[in-house]
Amino acid sequence: MPLARLFNRRLTIGLGLAAMLSLPLAACQGEDGKRDDAPADAGVVNLYTARHYDSDLQVYEAFTEATGIRVRRIEMPASEMIERLRAEGDASPADVIVIADAGAMGRAAEAGLLQPAASDDLVSRVPQNFRDPQNRWFGFTRRARVVAYDSAKVRPEEIDTYEELASPRFRGKLCVRNSDNPYNISLLSALIEHWGPERATEWARGVVANMARPPQGGDTDQIRAVGAGQCEVAITNSYYFLRMAGSENAADREIMQGVRLGFPSLDGRGSHNNVSAAGLAANAPNRANAIRFMEFLTEAQAQGVFAEVTNEFPTAEGAAVPERMRDYAARPVDPLPMSAYGPRQAEAQRIFEAVGWR
Amino acid sequence: MSLPLRARSDRRGPSPLAWAALLAALVAIAPLAAAVMTALQPGAHSLTAPTFLRYAGASAALAAMVAVGATVLGAAAGVLVGLHRFPGRGLMAWLLAAPLAAPTFVLAYGYADLFDVAGPIQSSLRGALGVSPDLNVRSLWGAGLILSLAFYPYVYLTVRAALAHQSASTLEAARTLGATRAQTLRRIILPLLRPALAAGAALAVMETLADYGAVSFLGVQTLTTGVVRAWSVFGSTAEAARLALPLVGAAAVLLWIERRSRQGRVSDAARAKATPLALEPLGGWRGLAALVFCVGLIGLGLALPLGWLAHQGLSVEPDTAALVRAGRNVLILAVLGGALTLGLATALALGGRRTPFLTRLAGLGYATPGAVMAVGLLAPAGFLWRGVEGAAQGLGAGVLLLVLAYASRLTAAALEPIGAGLERVTPAMAHAARSLGESETGAALRVELPMARGALLTAALLVFIDILKELPATVMLRPFGFDTLAVIADRYAKDERLAQAAWPSLLIVLIAAPVVIWLNRQVSRTARGVTQ
If exposure means fewest CB atoms within 10 Å of the residue's CB, which of A117, B212, B219, B237 is most exposed? Predict the structure, then answer.
């Protein structure tokens, strides 16, 4: 055939290569080689997750070891996940949905992508403010959105409320990431819920006036900027601070020398927190496995891995906390139910736009 | 002279080629059509006019900066290598295209970390001077600079190709009429290169407008990041698609510019005699300066950011098993996607010749931001997921969907070189085949395609590289447990672990670099008068 002659050797090599590549593909069933060594094949659980931490891989392995249920997963950002679930509709293979922000989780629930999970274990283990009132999702790790500060220039009592971050005391001395970030949006959502939109807008305006530089980078970059002296205070999630403070990288430890973590309080009730939450997908084909998986996330073993590896605080009542983060985990938490964040997201984003918080 | 052909095919109805072209066009246009339909849906207008103008302004400013930056750098490199002889020229000639092997987000990782306020450069300056100068690349200027360095190879390559098609006699005539070297450059060479510069700049600007990975990492808010923001924060796909419409419009204009300039170039090529241009020797400090310029360009465009990433990567233990799996996955996707895209683009190029509008429409997908294409792809994907039992579960269906997604996004990228290759086959050759009894399809398969096989290979490899670097569609449509290198890099970067992100990033470049260099050599071989 002339067409074949035209590509002659190149085509043959190409096809051969493609065949060689697809052989292992067919054999491995697309998952992490977990097909033969599971104790007994108890089916699968299909997981869509927006988390991207190594701790989670360890937890999946432990889950398979304990139950024989294989974990098949796709990682993608929350917004993409929500759209994909919508497009898949009834045909969706998703059993469990994991999102690292209570606000976005609320949006998924609102879009009808979740269903209530009937599990007494989950309900009794996870405190009420860390889960959906209809039990469609449960927070399984907690992080505080607090302040890294330069201990040479800032006294802890200067940052013991969120209001102080917007005060003229820190004009040109504050670092924070941009307003696309879900953690910032949920923080402002909580402030709107507590203070009303006017006062929340004033606060956001004050923070913008205090910015040492246009918002850029992630939380780690804000902490580094405090260490490098570009700003005196930075808004950050607690686990980034803990990770850098315990880093094996000499440059990181050096930059962290004078940096401390402070816990501002909302109206004297505690710091703003957020959760990573797991929800039961509306059309979960493996419903029992899904609930078993969600329960496993809140059991002692998984809670320990999340704390050890990702420096997140446990949400389950009575879960052990590693020594090095015990003080931080014990700080009071704003008791506002986190299901309140979702409905305020768009309003928060409009306020960010209005005050020029990029 | 094409009258008899047309009469014959009209009598028999559309040829198989025309049907194939129609199918290819459908695949290429479907996501864009879906995105436009999404945009037309009524939805809450959460976007204020000043915000829209801010996004559009940033996009325009960035496009202007890259248009100037990439054109100046690429033209200088192209003219130096294409017309002069200097120490190290041979090596430089093929290394200068190498930055195309690196995804822009990888360059952004490297530069952002190097120039961070707590990074090595500012820290050591602070140590030495006591103050740190404001060298922040996480800014509009920084993004403009990084994207110029990333995209100058487009201009470099079009300039090299254009110079290869010029006859030496024009330059000789100028010199015999007493023009100095500077006058020849200004009055003869630059005007001759204008179409090539326009084409290269159009490609660079198109890539800039569609870029998401680098600009979002650098914190520059453009229309593309606005698209994602509208989507992820306001949950409004309609708003996202609306934001993308100006980008699609800009893409249409840029494609038109590119096409017009290519038409000019082809007619030159047809007339040119195979008298290769004589290389002007650059001696002494001039030669050295030329070498330093080229080394500097390659260093800033690739070696410096990648070297720093590699240095960071060495401080952590890579997850080798995951990297190998992701490498295998992306190779499978790139080979399958390259083959399918090549097939569709070839069908479109051959069968769509009488319907140029169809071909042009299919070209728009390339410059549409990946996130918007992903929104558009979800609608057709949804049909497959809901309509075919087990399609949403299976690995095979997932891979097929991804490969189709790549084809619809990249058909335009393959169309350009294929179109150029087929234009070199004169109509007389096809006519000769037809008069010897070949059908239209037969003439295409047995005469035109074999003659354009160099162009076909080039097209397939271009698509191969783009799939290696692709992120938004892969993230959204991939099946269970099927990560690619770009997906892993992005995940680590999101977790703010740059050292871990370095490994998959470097692997992408290592796989793409030999392909890019081979493609570049095709250009220089043409320059020496070897056509295929």
Answer: B212
Q: Which of A33-37, B69-73, B93-97, B236-240 has the lowest mean pLDDT?
A: A33-37
Percentage of the residues of chain A whose pLDDT score is greater than 90: 80
B214: closest CA of chain A, how far (Å): 12
* SS3 track for B398-421: HHHHHHHHHHHHHHHHHHHHHHHH
Residue A268: left (phi > 0), alpha (psi -120 to 50), or beta? left
- Inter-chain contact A21–B331, Cβ cutoff 8 Å? yes
Q: What is the set of domains in chain B, with CATH numbers?
A: 1-40+317-496 (1.10.3720.10), 60-219+262-314 (1.10.3720.10)
Tokens 């070199």 found at = B424
Model pLDDT, residue B391: 81
| Cβ atoms of A86 and B381 closer than 8 Å | no
List, for residues B79-113, the tens digit of each pLDDT value: 999 999 999 999 999 899 999 999 999 999 999 99
CATH classification for the domain delimited by A44-142+274-327, as one of 3.40.50.880, 3.90.660.10, 3.40.50.10860, 3.40.190.10: 3.40.190.10
Lowest mean pLDDT among A17-21, A55-59, A160-164: A17-21
- pTM here is 0.86
Indicate yes or no: CB of B496 within 8 angstroms of CB of A213: no
Question: Which site among B233, B474, B492 would you substitute to test the A interface, given the most A Cβ atoms closer than 10 Å to its Cβ?
Answer: B233
E strand intervals along chain A: 44-49, 70-75, 96-99, 114-115, 137-150, 174-175, 233-237, 259-262, 273-281, 313-314
Please indicate whether, in this complex, the C-beta atoms of A72 and B235 are within 8 angstroms of each other: no
Q: Measured on CA atoms in the order B148, B150, B153, B158, is the torsion positive or negative? A: negative
Closest CB from A6, A22, A76 relative to B449: A6
Q: What is the tens place of the pLDDT at every residue in A291-334? A: 999 999 999 999 999 999 999 999 999 899 999 999 999 999 99
> Is residue A12 pLDDT above 70, yes or no?
no
Q: pLDDT higher for A102 or B212?
A: A102
Fold of A143-272+342-355: D-Maltodextrin-Binding Protein; domain 2 (3.40.190)
| CB contact at 8 A, B502 and B313 | yes
Q: Which of B328, B392, B481 sits opposite A31 (nearest CB)?
A: B481
Instruction: Tell me the β-bridge partners of B280.
Output: B84
Q: Residues of A with CB below 8 A from B232's CB?
A: 77-79, 180
